[in-house]
TrEMBL record, chain A:
Catalytic reaction annotation: S-ubiquitinyl-[E2 ubiquitin-conjugating enzyme]-L-cysteine + [acceptor protein]-L-lysine = [E2 ubiquitin-conjugating enzyme]-L-cysteine + N(6)-ubiquitinyl-[acceptor protein]-L-lysine
Protein name as annotated: GATOR2 complex protein WDR24
Assigned GO CC terms: cytosol; GATOR2 complex; lysosomal membrane
GO MF annotation, one: zinc ion binding
Entry's family note: Belongs to the WD repeat WDR24 family.
CDD domains per UniProt: mRING-H2-C3H3C2_WDR24 (cd16693)
Region (Disordered): 516-536, 581-604
Keyword terms, alphabetized: Autophagy, Lysosome, Membrane, Metal-binding, Repeat, Transferase, Ubl conjugation pathway, WD repeat, Zinc, Zinc-finger
Tree of life domain: Eukaryota
Organism classification: Eukaryota, Metazoa, Chordata, Craniata, Vertebrata
Subcellular localization(s) per the UniProt record: Lysosome membrane
UniProtKB/TrEMBL annotation, chain B:
Pfam family, one: WD40
Taxonomic lineage from the root: Eukaryota, Metazoa, Chordata, Craniata, Vertebrata
Subunit structure: Component of the Nup107-160 subcomplex of the nuclear pore complex (NPC). The Nup107-160 subcomplex includes NUP160, NUP133, NUP107, NUP98, NUP85, NUP43, NUP37, SEH1 and SEC13. The SEH1 subunit appears to be only weakly associated with the Nup107-160 subcomplex. Component of the GATOR2 subcomplex, composed of MIOS, SEC13, SEH1L, WDR24 and WDR59. The GATOR2 complex interacts with CASTOR1 and CASTOR2; the interaction is negatively regulated by arginine. The GATOR2 complex interacts with SESN1, SESN2 and SESN3; the interaction is negatively regulated by amino acids.
WD repeat ranges per the UniProt record: 8-40, 274-306
Protein name: Nucleoporin SEH1
GO CC list: kinetochore; lysosomal membrane; nuclear pore outer ring; Seh1-associated complex
Subcellular location as annotated: Chromosome, Centromere, Kinetochore; Lysosome membrane; Nucleus, Nuclear pore complex
Gene3D superfamilies per UniProt: YVTN repeat-like/Quinoprotein amine dehydrogenase (2.130.10.10)
Name of the gene encoding the protein in the UniProt record: SEH1L
Family the entry assigns: Belongs to the WD repeat SEC13 family.
Leader sequence segment: none
Source organism of the structure: Mustela putorius furo
Alphabetized UniProt keyword annotations: Cell cycle, Cell division, Centromere, Chromosome partition, Kinetochore, Lysosome, Mitosis, mRNA transport, Nuclear pore complex, Nucleus, Protein transport, Repeat, Translocation, Transport, WD repeat
Gene Ontology BP terms: cell division; cellular response to amino acid starvation; chromosome segregation; positive regulation of TORC1 signaling; protein transport
Summary of the function given for this chain in its UniProt record: As a component of the GATOR2 complex, functions as an activator of the amino acid-sensing branch of the mTORC1 signaling pathway. The GATOR2 complex indirectly activates mTORC1 through the inhibition of the GATOR1 subcomplex. GATOR2 probably acts as an E3 ubiquitin-protein ligase toward GATOR1. In the presence of abundant amino acids, the GATOR2 complex mediates ubiquitination of the NPRL2 core component of the GATOR1 complex, leading to GATOR1 inactivation. In the absence of amino acids, GATOR2 is inhibited, activating the GATOR1 complex. Component of the Nup107-160 subcomplex of the nuclear pore complex (NPC). The Nup107-160 subcomplex is required for the assembly of a functional NPC. The Nup107-160 subcomplex is also required for normal kinetochore microtubule attachment, mitotic progression and chromosome segregation. This subunit plays a role in recruitment of the Nup107-160 subcomplex to the kinetochore.
Alphabetized InterPro entries for the sequence: Sec13/Seh1_fam (IPR037363), WD40/YVTN_repeat-like_dom_sf (IPR015943), WD40_PAC1 (IPR020472), WD40_repeat_dom_sf (IPR036322), WD40_rpt (IPR001680)
Amino acid sequence: MEKMSRVTTALGGSALTGRTMHCHLDAPANAISVCRDAAQVVVAGRSIFKIYAIEDEQFVEKLNLRVGRKPSLNLSCADVVWHQMDENLLATAATNGVVVTWNLGRPSRNKQDQLFTEHKRTVNKVCFHPTEAHVLLSGSQDGFMKCFDLRRKDSVSTFSGQSESVRDVQFSIRDYFTFASTFENGNVQLWDIRRPDRCERMFTAHNGPVFCCDWHPEDRGWLATGGRDKMVKVWDMTTHRAKEVHCVQTIASVARVKWRPECRHHLATCSMMVDHNIYVWDVRRPFVPAAMFEEHRDVTTGIAWRHPHDPSFLLSGSKDSTLCQHLFRDASQPVERANPEGLCYGLFGDLAFAAKESLVSAESGRKPCAGDRRHPIFFKRKLDPAEPFVGLASSALSVFEMEPSSGSMSWFVDTAERYALAGRPLAELCDHNAKVARELGRNQVAQTWTMLRIIYSSPGLASAASLNHSVGKGSSYGLPLMNSFNLKDMAPGLGSETRLDRSKGDTRSDTVLLDSSTTLITNEDNEETEGSDVPADYLLGDVEGEEDELYLLDPEHAHTEEPEYVLPQEAFPLRHEIVDTPPGPEHLQDKADSPHVSGSEADAASLAPVDSSFSLISVSHALYDTRLPPDFFSALVCDMLRFYAEQGDVQMAVSVLIVLGERVRKDIDEQTQEHWYTSYIDLLQRFCLWNVSNQVVKLSTSRAISCLNQASTTLHVNCSHCKRPMSSRGWVCDRCHRCASMCAVCHHVVKGLFVWCQGCSHGGHLQHIMKWLEGSSHCPAGCGHLCEYS
Amino acid sequence: MFVARHIPADHKDLIHDVSFDFHGRRMATCSSDQSVKVWDKSESGDWHCTASWKTHSGSVWRVTWAHPEFGQVLASCSFDRTAAVWEEIVGESNDKLRGQSHWVKRTTLVDSRTSVTDVKFAPKHMGLMLATCSADGIVRIYEAPDVMNLSQWSLQHEISCKLSCSCISWNPSSSRAHSPMIAVGSDDSSPNAMAKVQIFEYNENTRKYAKAETLMTVTDPVHDIAFAPNLGRSFHILAIATKDVRIFTLKPVRKELTSSGGPTKFEIHIVAQFDNHNSQVWRVSWNITGTVLASSGDDGCVRLWKANYMDNWKCTGILKGNGSPVNGNSQQGNSNPSLGSNIPNLQNSLNGSSSGRKHS
């Protein structure tokens, strides 16, 4: 620690050495000032007034200026200043309005020299003339500034701040006759010392009190001011009107400001409240401090650079009763710790990325974009090439958007919208969903749906399957041809699978996968399938593996299970069944037929998987003569659902859960189901799929979920004829006994979405009105109004 | 695969955070220039700045959206030691006509004595809650008891982490089986090799947050931390940005086995660790399903990580911050030969994106 922080600075012969260190004072400090030789510092406060020698390793108390048994109020110092030409001359400002000068050269213990009791209230600031040995300036709460000639007993001239309290006075370093003063009302005045009658210039610098100011040590026109409005402003005073050239935003009121020696754009600040740290700012980067000193535990009251030509040592006094020497090198640098990047994954797979320009454009040398406003800075930089400036950092913001064709989240939206979850027999639902999944290129999911269909709706069909099969072939033209074509291609031993392949469409990878599943190809083959297509296929491996076992298990279980197996109740899609249908083979027959009817009506594609999967099953039945209860699979299906959930595809888990209903529900604990539901609903809502989300809520069996839609929505309806509120729950008004909200097209009561023209107030079913308006622009009610629906 | 769309952000200093809203149609950015900007996506996919205002008197480190159920609400946190909650005002005004929206400050949370380094809204099912963490090592959890009144927040919990905190992440799981949980990362750079990631869990019995786990293996400063969206998983996935990217899984050990009432015990596994950025990693962000992780580092690149069915995490994409393609196969050493066929695709798509990018 000590080794690293010892620093020696060569300053034209004399050398400054030291390290970051602090010493304890007996009392809180109000102000500090450094001697010209940079080896001594004076600390003044309400009950302290001491001189310390700054040695390499420590501060050493040299002199206590509070002498006498009963220290007078004159010693309660608000400010202290050490003459920069005379090492023996000090001045203090007392809180009772007295200005005292001290002569260290006096032989007696009491070094007090002169006493000016002209101010009526606290003197906030005293300031020696930088080049004149005998001129002292003071600024007081009473609104006056006084100039003293130390050779005389009283003030030479008095400057009136028009009853505004003076917070700071500073002689200009370059202009012999000029000084600046700051006021509590936010004004800054510029005075010529020879003209006490009125100020040379006045301007409003801050909102609220201006606590401090400091002239730039080299640049003669620059004055920095700090105020309660948390800002430090740098003014160019050379122009006709004071011009604000920089503005630094700090996080607390600015109590002191001091330009850093040898660093043209740096200044140090400390605050009078809340914030105990000392900051060094580069005024060109006004938002982030260049350095931060965090040693003090209470408000920092005085800061001073140790030597007017050395930028690395800063001294500070604080209310926490410590005196510190800070080494610039040991400062913490908030810029370094600040995060230079922002990154956020969007809903649709897009990425927002903001990064420091130097990070992203290091190699490519991209031109700064149009909105860049760094040009003034570059200009300044040219003026000042000696001082390296890391740059006013700026960030490049870009959004990486997924091309619609590639794997954005559109599959999720499409799947959610197109899946059928209820309202049809299980087999149909599975087929439909398999088809949807396949069309979206999600073959693994499609496969799963097909398997679910096989598992849950085929055992009873064993006898019917062959029949269906032939019927299906007969009824769907074109397809059998393809079927046979494929058959030729494939190995003859795999006849049953090939049909299934065809049903899968012509995706090659799928064929491979299916082959592997049914023929139990070894791991190497699985590897092959991985490489071949979309990443989603990786996932398949696991499920496939399980299904492999399933097929393997078939024969064994066939022997253990009884051949005359009776179909359990769960096999029926209870939810969608008409209750009075007698359970029995005839009914099964019906059910088996239904997909065919719908299939041939709609499109052949949906039909294809149906009959081929049937054929698969029929083959397996033929081979092993098994009739496994669906219960047998439920553990497996639950595992599969969990697998999907763990893989982040909660959509699949919930969809299957809803479609299978009672068949699997009891095997998965309520809490997990609820978790899946809430997760899926949350996702749907993110994509604004409100309808799907409501459907899911409605179909869910978990009480916690289904009550989601029953909370806090009340619909108040008025009768469209008598304009009275509809009190009863029906659609007939109690009062006028007519049906409310009739559709103008079909003359039925509209339940659900009702759309009406705001001009003639006729309307009806959304679908009907839309259809009507395609043909006519007149109101369907015949009122002659030219309706506008948008 | 990706098209880069550059947005002239016009922030006057570094941007520290970007955040999409719940529906992915709005974006907020915050910067050291003390301002927050809100961007809305137009029909054509362009992002327009619809609001820009000064939020703090110091660098704004983070900005985050609340669930839209609570309104259009943002929270920001800053070097100025405060966190603030902002709400968009709906109403007809001149601003509206110019396509600008108006945001008002609903509250300022001033409890921290040091820089507030992160702010995050709790998952929606917990109500309107907000967690902040600060450089003095304290995580604070606030709650708005009345969701209609965004100006009233009460400080519910103060968790001391003993280390300067840099980032927090709520566990997003909505399962009743998972108690509210928050992970805290520290960027404390002091040489002592203390664990920099702590996980706190809410205990129903004591009604306090208690430390559930400490990730002992993470001893370097942590810059970002993110739980993956849970989506029905029984376990949690946590991504950490430190000197490399790390992915941990936390599997709750069944309650019956642990002493009831105590904090949940977890089986913690590190499932991936990537130093491909060759430098500090600043940010990690999960996609919506928690299957792809994006990370960004000092190399100015965004890298995408994805697991295959064997739970092997691999790099699936590299994006240069300015949209230019990344030269050379930077997946060396990590890429599995079986993935070989994917790489040319990826390179092609990256090249394609560079030609398609816009300069606006």
